[in-house]
Design brief:
The complex is a heterodimer of chains A (about 70) and B (about 200). Chain A is mainly α and about 70 residues long. Chain A has one domain. Chain A is built from 3 helices and 2 strands, in the order E-E-H-H-H. Chain A has a two-stranded antiparallel sheet. In chain A, strand 1 and strand 2 form a beta hairpin. Chain B is built from 7 helices and 8 strands. In chain B, strand 6, helix 4 and strand 7 form a beta-alpha-beta unit. The longest helix of chain B is centred in the C-terminal third of the chain and has 22 residues. The chains are: A mainly alpha (about 70), B alpha/beta (about 200). At the A-B interface, strand 2, helix 1 and helix 2 of A face strand 1, strand 2, strand 8, helix 6 and helix 7 of B. Strand 2 of chain A pairs parallel with strand 8 of chain B.
Chain lengths: ~70, ~200
């Protein structure tokens, strides 16, 4: 819920996240890929790392943690 | 018939001139608003022509919690040298919505006191003066909008705008677009601004 602060006449609201903002204007996957490439080429963002899940043998189970 | 879904507080309708001289201010507006966690919208999202264009513009303004109207272009334009009434007309729609529901609007101008001459019905509504500069636009945004999580600093917005402008030049060059006033470039500009704002820690 947004309100107008009487003292400052500012429009007060809860800010959205980058993903929520993109979703609300219909940013496509193609747009995202293009933008990420441009920003990476210009050096404004780092190369996005691909998340690699650890091998199953390396997972710490609750049981092994207790030992 | 327009639907009755409540307006989204973070959605901002931009009623601004789409001319080449305004392109830098337009992208600054998008950058600044995105960096404070708002979602810019404008008529570029509405396909041109069609009988129900006005209705769709109304619905877009109606769906936004707030609107921003830059009335700094009061010149004659086009081959017929006539004033264009679209922008004051859309401000009228926004004004009507403030009377009916919780819509809010802000008026931007580049010069002091001119609005009193160009639209005297709005006396009592003080415009925010940006002086026709990108810094002025950013100051107006900080004056008007107060994110509950706290507003970013002016230097942070300025730095983001510099990077945003450079990125947009690259996007325009790659896609051979002379201005940023294109539906898909509009989306991309918002995405650039959102990614930069996130990278700078201004939004989540």
């Amino acid at each position: 819920m947004a309100i107008m602060s009487k003292a400052t006449k500012k429009y007060v609201y809860s800010p959205l996240t980058a993903e929520q903002i993109s979703d609300r204007v219909g940013v496509t996957r193609k747009d995202k890929a293009l933008v990420t490439k441009v920003l990476t080429d210009l050096g404004y963002i780092g190369k996005k790392s691909v998340k690699v899940s650890p091998p199953s043998s390396a997972k710490v189970t609750k049981k092994s943690k207790q030992r | 018939m327009p639907d009755q879904t409540p307006p989204v507080p973070q959605d901002v309708f931009l009623n601004v001139p789409f001319d080449t001289r305004y392109s830098g201010l337009f992208t600054t507006l998008i950058g600044g608003l995105t960096a404070v966690g708002l979602v810019p919208h404008c008529v570029l999202e509405i396909p041109g022509g069609g009988r129900n264009r006005l209705e769709r513009i109304y619905e877009l303004i109606d769906s936004c919690g707030v609107s921003l109207h830059d009335l700094s272009r009061v010149t004659l334009s086009g081959p017929l040298r006539v004033p264009r009434f679209n922008m004051p007309f859309e401000l009228g729609i926004a004004y009507a919505l403030t009377q009916r529901q919780g819509h809010q609007f802000f008026i931007f101008e580049s010069r002091n006191h001119r609005l009193q001459a160009s639209l005297s019905d709005l006396n009592g509504h003080d415009p925010h003066i940006h002086g026709g500069t990108q810094d002025g636009i950013l100051r107006c945004i900080l004056d008007c909008f107060g994110p509950s999580a706290g507003a970013p600093s002016f230097p942070a917005l300025r730095s983001l705008t510099r990077k945003l402008n450079r990125s947009i030049r690259t996007l325009q060059l790659d896609q051979r677009l002379p201005t940023p006033f294109h539906p898909y470039l509009f989306r991309q500009v918002i995405r650039v601004a959102a990614e930069l704002a996130q990278a700078e820690g201004l939004i989540a």
